[in-house]
Amino acid sequence: MSSDRLLTLKAALEAALGDAIASTDVDRGELTVVLKAAAYADAMLRLRDDPSLRFEQLIDLCGLDYSDWKNLGTEGRRYAVVSHLLSVTHNWRLRVRVFCPDDDQPMVASATPVWNSANWFEREAFDMYGIVFDGHLDLRRILTDYGFIGHPMRKDFPVSGHVEMRYDAEKKRVIYQPVTIEPRENVPRVVREDHYGGLH
Description:
The chain is α/β, with parallel strands linked by helices. Helix content is 20%, strand content 28%. It has a single domain, classed as 2-Layer Sandwich (Beta Polymerase, domain 2).
């Protein structure tokens, strides 16, 4: 998007959302707005309905775990929800980020009352990251098994998981058992061996 259109969009966002905005950032021709968690639900509604914005479509929504981001450790909140919006009317796009106020029980408002396409996206963020979406009418796992323990996209989740399942022919059912895979160092030889391939 051209810099003039980005400035127009940024001005429209600031006028429509005001104090709901925590920060804005322009990078590589894209605008990102960070919203305050307390104002998130109302701000998302205004993003859709304000005539100067008119973001009719929610293209994507995902969870993020910022712990140890860029190997720098955690600065600020750990979990965030990022949405990508499209305005067909004005032909522009926007990235919206909101941080969950509580790292121990991450929760933000659901965007499903505004865009029903958020439904399965929010279920995936709940399943993978444990982010709860307040107001979601059917928040349950969507990718993992019903008995799955934990949230596999969290950075502190073990690579091998906590349990494994297998089919038991005698019991004629699937059973769960502790993981039998031995943890191993998974570092490429080029990194762990000083003279690998004749490199010094």
